[in-house]
Specification:
It is elongated, with a radius of gyration of 28 Å. A hairpin with a 4-residue loop joins strand 6 and strand 7. Helices cover 50% and strands 12% of the residues. The protein is of the alpha+beta class and 403 residues long.
Length: 403
Amino acid sequence: MERLILPQAAWRDRADLAALCDALGAAQGDARFVGGAVRDTLLELPVQDIDIATRLTPETVLQRLKDADIRAVPTGLAHGTITAVLPDGLVEVTTLRRDIATDGRHATIAFTDDWKDDAARRDFTINALYADPLTGALFDYFGGLDDLAARQVRFIGDPLQRIAEDHLRILRFFRFLARFGDVADPAGIAACTARANDLMALSRERIADELLKLLRVPGAATIVPMMIDNGILAPVLPEITNANRLIRLISLEKEAGIAGDPIRRLAALLANQPALGEAIGARLKLSIANRKRLMLALDSTPPANPRALAYRIGVEGAIDRLLLHGAAENAIEQLGLLSNWAPPRLPISGGVLVERGIDRGPDVARTLRQIEDQWVAENFPDDARLSSIIDAAVDQALRATKN
């Protein structure tokens, strides 16, 4: 039987990568490409990260890289991972492993020299594909090539057991299904549904990281409704009960040519309550900036002039609001008004008003706010019109002071 070969790809021609593989003994069969780089090359997708699995111990890897004058960073030495710092990018090198004990969040591992043992501890068959760096020969221990051809995401071994080992695999299953899958493995769906409550044992940071990765891909429009129907998110995000607005949003993003954004898409899954955005953002340990963005996106105030809105809350916030709340028939036109537009700064300061006779303090602040409101309402007119607005506001303020 003819062995399948990894297709040629630009990343495989890297001289620095060849030097690393040589140092790791690829010619002796001690190192293989594994995981995403192999999978994505077979799918003719861009390769983002390159991982190498090796039979060498971590200490031997460190010594080999030192001898080859390759900088090595022991990023996960306890788990056998060393990062090789190459001119064209980082490469993670990990010693073959097998699990000794798991608790749903962490694993105790032992090093091994058996490739199949290493493959068996990986989550899905399509992630357990290896390739010889020199010949491109593929190694598939659990039917990953067939699953990749069928666009099926399938656990290695018993799905219930694999989820018990690492609860995050529930969300990873749906993320990979959204990105690579056309076929929903019934056993995988059933296991994720049965063990959905296991997600409550995970840190909210890990949940947020996986959820936002899932929401970033186009397939989220199909997969998130499936997750809701099967009660996957209910244990940790019971507020998410409907995906209709997410589906509409993803369609509108595509029509407008705007990249899908996970924070905006998360907002589409929530009710229009800014306080809810703050609560969910805090629960998921999102950054302060992203919590604020959720709150702004969930303000159901109808979008006014898009540039006025962008001036008040930022271009990103205005795009979120227009896509989530703008009328579908004119949202594209409104978004066009923000293309390559940067909100201007109000070209007048309080000091100018003081020079024109207005007392420092509340009077200056009030007059400046009046000028700004009128300037924004008139869609940022030219200097001549702004001068008239300023004159009128100053005259009004001075008359009020005299009275």
